[in-house]
Amino acid sequence: MKSIFIDKNIKPITKDLEHGLGETFHIWKSFEDFTKNNYPNATSEWKFSGEKFGWSYRIKDNKRVLIYLLPRDKFFKTAFVFGQKAMNQILESNISEAIKTELKAAKPYVEGRGIRIEIKNQSNFEDIQKLIKIKISN
Q1: What is the pTM of this model?
Q2: Which residue segment(s) compose the domain that 111 sits in?
């Protein structure tokens, strides 16, 4: 499933995001605020990744993306790429076994292993916050 925002010529605005995400908008906003509060120099941007993927939102430091937020219809996905040091920290943490299993199964690339997590409610809220902190610290 791709982004709900697929028109290259129309960059999403907050009103569009609120409408598209529905009840999950406040969770998106919480993750955005949490990331920026834990890394005050973070910048954010909407990025169009082609017709196949549509628009996504990225929060970055100077060199890398800390978290990707991928809007879907009434929910969203978070996405991360973790290097080996961060991966080891995650595997030793109390983050859910489901996330650890998915991360271990992810194909390794030079930049690390990528994972996408669907956010339809608050169930993974604390785990996502922990992943954000681990990403920032590594």
Answers
A1: 0.94
A2: 14-137
